[in-house]
Amino acid sequence: MNPDITRSSAAELAHALDSGELSSVEVVQAHLDRIAAVDGDVHAYLHVDGEGALAAAREVDQRRASGEEVHVLAGVPIAVKDVMATKGLPTTCGSKILEGWVPPYDATLVAKLRAAGMPILGKTNMDEFAMGSSTEHSAYGPTHNPWDLTRIPGGSGGGSSAVVAAYEAPLAIGTDTGGSIRQPASVTGTVGVKPTYGGVSRYGLVALASSLDQAGPCTRTVLDAALLHSVIGGHDPLDSTSIDAPVPAVVEAARRAEVKGLRVGVIKELGGEGYQAGVRARFDESVALLQEAGAEVVEVSCPSFDYALAAYYLILPSEASSNLAKFDAMRYGLRVLPEGVDDPSAEQVMAATRDAGFGDEVKRRIILGTYALSSGYYDAYYGQAQKVRRLIANDFSAAFEKVDVLVSPTAPTTAFKLGDKLDDPMSMYLQDVATIPANLAGVPGMSLPSGLADEDGLPTGIQILAPATQDQRLYGVGSALERMLNDRWGAPLLTRAPELSAKGA
Fold it and tell me: What rounded mean pLDDT belongs to the chain?
């Protein structure tokens, strides 16, 4: 295996494929070899489809050889979070209740990947039904952070961030309900983007919270994220929440990479008490670089953000309890018969199946959501949370009248040790304190590596937020800052990660 293949960016691989320097079969095989070498330690994949990926690669190579015009990313392989329906490939959502389920159709964004000629390497590990911030709630075991195998890779999409950080895929798809693309990107030194709500189709995405879920890119560079965003974005008539508008000019913005004259707002409420000193230091340095490059930096107050976490953990469980009601042992998925019952009723089978098939965190949120929606409590809890959501959206609107983008640390800490927070749900929930407001308001957000924390030498991230449908602003600012940071470091941050081997770090 040529190690340079797996360490190349998607844009570099696309150029090499277009020029004939590499074939897609070579690129896919290199990544399959890398997966075989290191994923036993990282456990980022739940299913690897080597045969299917190589078949797709051969088809792309044949199309190129015949002179057919193909997509710029044709032949570049990708990994997909296991919450997306993939025809012919298992889709488990990290849960025993869907173990072995093979969908009869593709999610819209998966269909777009296939249409672009992008071989799918496999499905990535995740917290069960996307509930968690560490990928420790997967029914199939945790994913490990490639920077330190004793630490978490973030969640719920830790598998997607880890495959990119471990060079097991140049690109991956994640989903972000309250930070599940951006927080994993922060703790693995990668780039993660949550597009504007409705900017990428949710059709075929197994829903957690329908008003919050959004799929997006997990990559190693901002340009790669833009290229992938341009593939998966756009209107989909199969998704009633899909925005009927062209995909923002994200690739052009990433290549332009300008911040001079831009107004950047530092969010006062996101970065004080509870934020690790090293996280804050790297964030301040990144903001200083933007200022040196000609951006106007001001502090912006969004007071309702203080209530975002509480509102989110009422809205999300409420929607989750409704969405997960369909896993009833009657139509598909796991079916468990209750012990000691000769002729069980449908309700008894359903109760036994859900008890056996759902993990503790999923049960916790179903119970909380059902309570919040129950008679007598709906207005006091769910209704009040929706009012806070409107206040948060108003704060964003007011802030974007003063500035072009907002910035904050992506996560309050670097990656914590596996097992450290499993018995402390509130501490786990606080990992998403900076990312949740964007989901509640539907605005787009990006996490970009901002350096290594002094305390532990682990990655930190800076979050960039833009107004709804103005996703291109993320890419312009992110690409400019990425270039400045790489110049300061002398190379991309991931080059500082310890090398993985078949025996671990």
Answer: 96
**Model confidence over 295-327: pLDDT tens digits?**
999 999 999 999 999 999 999 999 999 999 999
The three-state (H, E, C) secondary structure of 365-390, written as one string = HHHHHHHHHCCCCCHHHHHHHHHHHH
Q: What is the pTM of this model?
A: 0.96
> CATH number, domain at 454?
3.90.1300.10
Please pick, among 8, 9, 81, 408, the residue that the annotation labels catalytic: 81
Each residue of 458-489: pLDDT tens digit? Answer: 999 999 999 999 999 999 999 999 999 999 99
What are the beta bridge partners of residue 84? 205
pLDDT of residue 504: 39
Within a domain: 207: yes
Q: Is residue 386 part of a domain?
A: no
Q: What tokens were used for 191? A: 């780039």
Tell me which residue range forms the domain holding 97.
3-260+446-496
Please tell me whether residue 169 adopts helix, strand or coil conformation.
Answer: coil
Is 180 marked active-site? yes
Q: Is residue 491 assigned to a domain?
A: yes
Count of domains forming the chain = 1
- Closest residue by Cα to residue 157 from 231, 78, 83, 49: 83
- 3-state percent helix, strand, coil for the chain, nearest multiple of 5: 45, 15, 45
In order, the DSSP letters of 435-498 are THHHHHHT--EEEEEEEE-TTT--EEEEEEE--TT-THHHHHHHHHHHHHHHHHHSS-GGGGSP
Q: From the candidates 160, 180, 286, 408, which is the catalytic residue?
A: 180
Per-residue burial over 420-448, b = 16 or more CB atoms within 10 Å of its CB, e = otherwise: ebbeebeebbbbbbbbbbbbbbbbbbbbb
Answer yes or no: is 304 within a domain: no
Q: Is 387 a catalytic residue?
A: no
| pLDDT per residue as tens digits for the range 115-143 | 999 999 999 999 999 999 999 999 999 99
Residue pointed to by tokens 């593709």 = 106
Task: Clarify whether 81 is annotated catalytic.
Answer: yes
User: Which one from 9, 133, 138, 156 is the annotated catalytic residue?
Assistant: 156
